[in-house]
Every structure is written in C-alpha cells, then in structure tokens.
Design brief:
It is a single chain. The protein is α+β, with helices and mostly antiparallel strands. Helix 5 crosses helix 7, helix 5 packs antiparallel against helix 9 and helix 12 packs across helix 13. It is found in: Membrane.
C-alpha cells in the first residue's frame, strides 16, 4: 500500500518533467543521454542534437564576423563546457562565419547532484538558446529535460539506447593535438606552424572572436618537416605572453583531421599592421546581411556611431544647436557637458527599462514604440510648442528648461543642460539613423543588461559632440564669436520646433482623429493664453500661476487622447496596402515586390519617401520592371507589421524589402535610401545574386 501511494505522489512530478525534445520553426532539438540510469555524484555525457532546417545554420563557439553561439543553461544538474564539433566556414559576401548546417550534436558532461536520492528520478532541465540564420537571423530557444532513474553507486549503470550514436558524435569532436604548435609574429599578424608533414590543405579556427581576421586568406606553406599558416591579426589580436587557441584542420594523403591547439605569443613580440587589412580587398556584399547577428562589441560600436549620426537628423539638430549657443560664451563648460550627457543617458536608460519591462510581459515592441501612443505624441507636441515659444522670446524660463543664456556655474544652468539632454533623447526617438537598426535589433534579442549597454552606447553617441565641445576648449574655437547674432539665431531655431508641432499634430490626426487634434489644439491655446496672461498681468505671482495652470490644463487634456479605429489605410496610384496575403499572392504569381514598412511619426521614413521612393525615376523603374509596391503603416501599433520587422531582424521602421521574381527570401535595403540605390536593387537583384547569411 505504501508503494502505491508513493507512486501516486511521484506520478505528477514525472509528468511535469521537461520533454527531451522540442522543435522551433527552424530547428528540432533533443537531449540524448549516454546512460539509461545514473548514480549520485556521477558524471556522464549528454548530447544536444540539432536538426537544422535546410539552408539554415547555427553557430560555433566563435561565430566569426557575425552570429551567436548556442548556449545551454542547466537546472538541477551541473553542466560542463560545451564540446564543439569542427565547424564549417560560411562565407557571406566579405564576411566569414563559423557554424553548422543539417544535423549537429554538441556534447556536454553533466554531473548528477551528490544528494540525488537512490530510487528517485534525475530530472534536470536545460534552457537551450541559439541563433539560426539564412537570409534573416532568428533567435530561438527551447527547454529540454531528462528523466532517468537514480541507482546506487555500486550498481552497474546501463548504457543509453543511443550510446553508440554518442560515441560516433564524440569522434567529430576535435581532440588535443599529439604535436606542439608554435606561434610567432609576422607581417600581417602571426604565423602558426606545426611538424606534420605532407599537409596539402590547412585552416585555423580561432576559438575567440577577433584574434584573427576571419575573412582573411590563410596561406599555407608546406615543407618537408611541417607546415605554416599565415594568419591576419583581427580586431583583438593575441598579446605577447597570451595564447592563441582554436582548432586546426590538416589535410594529408590519409584524409582530413581536426585538432585543438594552443600556443603562446612570445614575450616582447610585436604584431603586424592594421587588423582586418584583408577586408579592404574583399568583394562587396551582394545584399544587406542580417542585422540581428552581431556580437556585443560590434553592436556597441554601431550604436555609438548611430547615436552620433542622430545629431544630424532634423528632429535632433535644432536641440543640439540650442545647446551649442551656451558654448559660444566664455567659461568652463565641463559641468554643463556632463549634465547634458547625464540627461541623455538617463533618458535612454529609462527607455531601455520600459522596453525590458514590456518585453518581460510578452509584448513585442521596438524603437519608437512610444509614438504609438496618442498621449505621448500629444505631450511631445506641447513640449516642443513650449520650447518654440521660449526660443521666440515670448517668455523666459531661465535655465530650468533649455539652459540657454544662464550662468554656467549656477544650479539652474546645470539643470537646464540636464533637461536639454532629456529633450534631445525624446525628440530623437522618431528618427532612425544608419547603423542603428543593426544595434537595436541585436539589443532587443539579448538579456536585459546587454540591451541596456547598447542603449547607453546609443545615448553616448548622441551626447558625444556636445561633450567633446565642452571638454576641449580648442574645439570651441570652431564656434563663431558671441554677438547680437545669437539672439536672432536662437529665435530662428523656434521655427523647426513649430514645424515639429505641425508634424506631430498630423501624426495625431491619423492616430486619434479630428477630435484628438481638436483636444491638442485646445491645449496649445491654453498654453498661449496662460503665457499671455503672465505677460499682461501686473503681478508676477499671479502671472506665473496663470502660466503654470495653463500648461497643466493643456497637459491634462492630452490624457483624453485615445486611438480611434479609423478607415483602413488606403491604396494610391503608386502603392497598395501591405498585407501578408497580398504579398503571398504576388509572389505566387512570380512578380517582383517592393515592401515599405513606415510610420507617420518616423522622420527617416518620410525623408526616404520624399527623396527616393516618390521620385519620378524610381516610380518609372517600378513601372518598367512591373514591381508591385506594398506599403505597411506602423503609425498605430500593428502586430502583423511588428512580426515582419522581427522576422527581418529589425526593432522598428523603416524597413525596405525587395522580393525578386523566384527569390526565396527578400533583399533588405539600407535604412537611408537614394534613388540610385533603389533602382540598382530592383534592376540587379535576381535569385542568383541574393546574399545568404
């Protein structure tokens, strides 16, 4: 009877064990144990088998120029390091990645807890994550588990049903080389040499990113007493006294053998010239490579560069100009520069925190997501209207808002710099600069800390010009001398702010309809009335109170803004409305299709449409090529468009796709378009010229 109740109580636990296999859209994964039973404290081998969809691939421990290695996190057991089979070289335009196609097995030695109960069940779970790529890259994950009986240590453990298969997979794992290799500096990087004779082909896979240039050739010098490979130094070359390690494959008359090798760089040795020099001679890529397959360091670099370029965008440049006026004056500007940078970084950190929280709640959100909210659009419109009135000289709020013309040493001046940084970050979010898409797509597929780091790098890039001017007096000499022109220029900067208000009201009309625009205009009227009363009233206290009440009422009105279910987006003479069914229908007819994912609040999108997509020569090229032009509107949140963005490694709009006749996947165009770029893409893209990832 006791055994009956024991079985009854443990049955639910067995049922709750994670399954040993699972499948995503592109990869079937399963755990294969080498044993059918285990003992407390025992160490045994488990294989993670991946069956990868045809033409897709996953990545090695060092993915190469892009990509992410597969990871396994264990619960209920201690897992050792992944034992990787020899990867394949995967050239992608000028880049080279290392990874796997078809079926691959990664081996892990797992240790059973010492306190595992004999007669019980060993049920560890493994969270497995990988990046799978073709023309796009998609992060995927599954949770797998084992369910094995626990036997006494002195009992004979039974071999697993696929122990022979695991033994075969183990033979694909490179073993330590039975010979010593040597490393020495060379003209372009280093030379790796070994004593094996008769080598006809050789290749070295560095197991750390940046140690060598992955895409550079590896010339082989075969001698009677051994071989030498010339390796070009990468972005993080091996330093003197540190080892270079990895896998070397050697082909001789008896076949190809892979070995793990490691050799230290001699102390005092120098390195060759510019890392990655061989990239200059590589051919240009046939198409854009996927943007979510970066590593952390490239993503941080791209985010920094994208943030720098944001300063030139029409939504940000006027704000930067406002702040630059303060630098024309004499004095020490370091404190202002730090305060401005703090405002930018804290704003980007807050944006990242909101994104992390929404993503944790299961929502798919991306860059500029807050502009889906009519309330946010209304608040920003009122904020920019206030900035414009201040610049026009209709009222003066000192350093508490824009920081223009205040004492650099005062507390208000620092507050002004801080809030100008906040304003710059707010108005930057509807813009997308080159290089940002890659970094943001990477960030949104990563853990919270990595995502925060990328957003802070983007904010640092945005703040960097003013920070450099504040800390380098020599750079301030580039600025013109102070004079009466400053007041005129400051007033002129009000008009870009007013133009931004008009644009935001247009966005609001599409989100909240005519009633929403009426509410926003009423709020602007209240602000104007409050500030007018402040000027004409004889009492500063009464006037200031009237202004504050007017602004408060105006912002309160924005809380009444609600999205409306307006008429669906209409087609025009030049485009059709995007729909997944319509896209599938056109592709089934073997027609070329150009897809434009855009939003009314995306300035980069609107600029691209004006300077490229609406140009007569582009429209003529579409007509001559029979290209169907589909336009997807993301002004209001649209889950279907969000899914398309995610599938193509993007966190936000713009996204431009071109499907050539017969092409399996789309060619992704850059985020900044020119007429020539679009025409070249639709005239040259064929199934044979598509890039793969």
């Amino acid at each position: 009877m006791r055994s009956f109740f024991s079985a009854l109580l443990t049955a639910p636990l067995v049922a709750l064990a994670a399954p040993p296999q699972a499948a995503t859209e592109h990869v079937k994964a399963r755990l294969v144990p080498a044993q059918a039973s285990v003992a407390p404290g025992q160490r045994f081998t488990v294989a993670l088998e991946q069956d990868i969809k045809s033409h897709w691939h996953t990545y090695w421990i060092n993915p190469g120029d892009s990509g992410q290695a597969t990871t396994i996190e264990w619960r209920g057991a201690q897992g050792g390091a992944i034992q990787w089979p020899t990867p394949a070289v995967q050239p992608i335009g000028p880049l080279v990645n290392y990874g796997y196609e078809g079926r691959v097995a990664l081996l892990v030695d797992v240790t059973v807890p010492a306190d595992a109960k004999v007669g019980g069940r060993f049920q560890p779970e493994a969270d497995v994550r990988w990046l799978v790529c073709k023309d796009v890259c998609i992060p995927e994950q599954v949770t797998l588990g084992l369910d094995l009986p626990v036997i006494a240590a002195e009992a004979q453990a039974q071999a697993g049903a696929e122990a022979a298969q695991i033994a075969e997979w183990r033979r694909a794992i490179p073993q330590p080389a039975p010979f010593a290799v040597q490393l020495k500096p060379a003209a372009q990087g280093v030379q790796l040499s070994g004593p094996t004779a008769g080598v006809t082909r050789a290749y070295f896979f560095a197991d750390t990113w940046g140690a060598v240039t992955h895409s550079a050739p590896q010339p082989l010098k075969a001698q009677a007493d051994g071989w030498t490979l010339d390796l070009t130094a990468g972005e993080d070359p091996v330093k003197p006294g540190r080892p270079l390690s990895g896998v070397v494959t050697l082909t001789t008359a008896t076949g190809t053998q892979a070995w793990t090798v490691s050799a230290p760089m001699p102390e005092g040795a120098g390195q060759g010239p510019a890392p990655g020099a061989a990239l200059a001679e590589a051919p240009a890529p046939a198409a854009a490579s996927p943007e979510s397959s970066l590593g952390l360091l490239p993503a941080l670099a791209l985010a920094l560069l994208g943030g720098l370029i944001l300063n030139l965008m029409p939504c940000v440049f006027p704000v930067l100009s406002i702040k630059a006026l303060a630098l024309v004056k004499q004095g020490d500007h370091k404190a202002e520069g730090l305060a401005y940078t703090a405002g930018v970084l804290l704003s980007f950190a807050a944006l990242a925190a909101v994104l992390i929280a929404l993503r944790a709640g299961g929502q798919q959100v991306g860059w500029g997501f807050q502009f889906h909210s009519p309330v946010f659009v209304g608040v920003v419109a009122h904020l920019l209207f206030l900035v414009g009135l201040n610049l026009s000289g209709l009222f003066d709020i000192g350093g508490s808002f824009t920081g223009v013309g205040t004492s650099l040493a005062s507390r208000q001046g620092l507050a002004g710099s801080f809030f100008t940084g906040v304003l710059a970050a707010v108005v930057a979010t509807p813009c997308t600069a080159p290089f940002m898409g890659a970094a943001l797509a990477f960030a949104l597929s990563q853990p919270a800390l990595v995502m925060l780091a990328v957003f802070l790098a983007l904010g640092l890039g945005l703040a960097l010009p003013f920070l450099v001017l504040a800390f380098l007096p020599a750079a301030q000499r580039w600025l013109p001398r102070p004079g009466l022109w400053m007041d005129t220029f400051k007033q002129a900067l009000a008009f870009p702010m007013y133009a931004a208000v008009v644009w935001l009201l247009w966005v609001l009309a599409q989100q909240a309809g005519p009633d929403g625009v009426a509410l926003a205009l009423g709020g602007l009227l209240l602000i104007a009335f409050g500030l007018w009363w402040r000027r004409v009233s004889g009492s500063p206290v009464v006037g200031t109170a009237a202004a504050v009440i007017g602004i408060a009422l105006a912002l309160a009105l924005t809380t009444g803004l609600r999205p409306v279910e307006g008429a669906p987006a209409a087609a025009s003479a030049t485009h059709e409305v995007y729909g997944a069914e319509r896209l599938a229908e056109l592709r089934a007819q073997n027609k070329p299709v150009f897809v434009n994912m855009t939003a009314a609040w995306c300035i980069s999108c609107l600029v691209n449409e004006r300077v490229a997509l609406s140009r007569p020569e582009v429209q003529q090229a579409f007509a001559q090529g029979g290209v169907a032009y589909l336009k997807g509107d993301w002004t209001r949140e649209d889950p279907a468009i969000t899914a398309v963005l995610k599938a193509h490694g993007r966190s936000g709009v713009p996204l431009y796709l071109y499907y050539a006749p017969g092409a399996a996947e789309a060619q992704v165009l850059p985020q900044i378009l020119t007429p020539g770029l679009v025409i070249e893409a639709i005239s040259s893209a064929t199934p044979a010229s598509r890039s793969s990832t």
